[in-house]
């Protein structure tokens, strides 16, 4: 088993995918599990994931890159494409859905423990709703935690990936009907295997030195 530091060192953002290579179905199931069990603040899970695995599905997503043409080929040549979406609001229905799932999974010894969990999660949700007034931003932060889990997991599965923020969210929300479902598109991730034309694969990784980015107290 590879250690995590080797995985982050080998991972590259893929700039060109080989359209002939497809990800095996069992690996896609692993990817779905990684996203399902990604961490989120207070286990709030304010997300939805759209998985495109057909040419038609990828073409639908690619419509959102008309103003970002440099990303169109990445989407169309990838094996699979994920759209990571954020809830428009953290409503009571969702909070109770999460709570009931936690109960079904055996997380509570009794009703008091269940109510304490609900009260604690609601405290933070309401803090972002009413005091900080940054609930949407806070929820999107959780989606980006899922993105990090996805990218590291893809590396562990020897799958190449490219996170994409260059797209028209208005177009993508419309094409996928996300607003009607209570979500908005936050980031696209193309998944597959790099082609020989991927110049980034041969470049050395570059990060600021640890001496600069860490302080010890």
Describe this structure as you would to a colleague:
The longest helix is centred in the C-terminal third of the chain and has 22 residues, at 135-156. A four-stranded antiparallel β-sheet has the order 1-2-4-3, with helices on both faces. Helix 2 (25-36) packs antiparallel against helix 7 and helix 5 (92-104) packs antiparallel against helix 6. It has 217 residues and is of the alpha+beta class. The chain has helices at 4-10, 25-36, 55-62, 72-77, 92-104, 111-131, 135-156, 169-176, 178-181, 210-213, and strands spanning 47-52, 80-87, 160-164, 183-192. The two termini are 33 Å apart.
Briefly note the structural class of the backbone: alpha+beta
* Shape by Cα distribution: globular
Compute the number of strand runs.
Answer: 4
Measured distance between first and last alpha carbons: 33 Å
User: Mean pLDDT, as a whole number?
Assistant: 97
What tags apply to this protein structure?
alpha+beta; globular; 217 residues; four-stranded antiparallel beta sheet
Secondary structure layout plus pairing:
Layout: H1 4-10, H2 25-36, E1 47-52, H3 55-62, H4 72-77, E2 80-87, H5 92-104, H6 111-131, H7 135-156, E3 160-164, H8 169-176, H9 178-181, E4 183-192, H10 210-213
Antiparallel strand pairs: 1-2, 2-4, 3-4
Helix pairs in contact: 2-7, 5-6
Quick overview:
The chain has ten helices and four strands. With 217 residues, it is of the alpha+beta class.
């Amino acid at each position: 088993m590879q250690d995590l530091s080797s995985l982050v060192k080998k991972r590259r953002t893929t700039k060109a995918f080989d359209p002939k290579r497809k990800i095996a179905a069992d690996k896609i199931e692993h990817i779905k599990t990684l996203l399902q069990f990604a961490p989120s603040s207070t286990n709030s899970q304010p997300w939805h994931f759209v998985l495109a695995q057909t040419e038609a599905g990828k073409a639908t997503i690619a419509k959102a890159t008309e103003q970002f043409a440099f990303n169109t080929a990445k989407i169309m040549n990838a094996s699979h494409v994920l759209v990571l979406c954020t809830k428009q609001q953290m409503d009571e229905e969702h909070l109770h859905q999460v709570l009931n799932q936690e109960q079904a999974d055996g997380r509570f010894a009794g009703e008091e423990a269940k109510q304490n969990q609900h009260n604690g999660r609601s405290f933070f949700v309401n803090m972002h709703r009413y005091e900080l007034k940054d609930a949407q931003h806070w929820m999107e932060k959780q989606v980006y935690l899922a993105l990090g889990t996805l990218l590291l997991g893809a590396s562990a599965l020897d799958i190449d990936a490219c996170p994409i923020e260059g797209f028209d969210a208005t177009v993508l929300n419309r094409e996928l009907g996300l607003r009607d479902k209570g979500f908005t598109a936050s980031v696209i991730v193309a998944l597959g295997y790099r082609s020989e034309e991927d110049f980034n694969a041969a470049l050395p990784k570059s990060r600021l030195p640890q001496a600069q980015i860490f302080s010890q107290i």
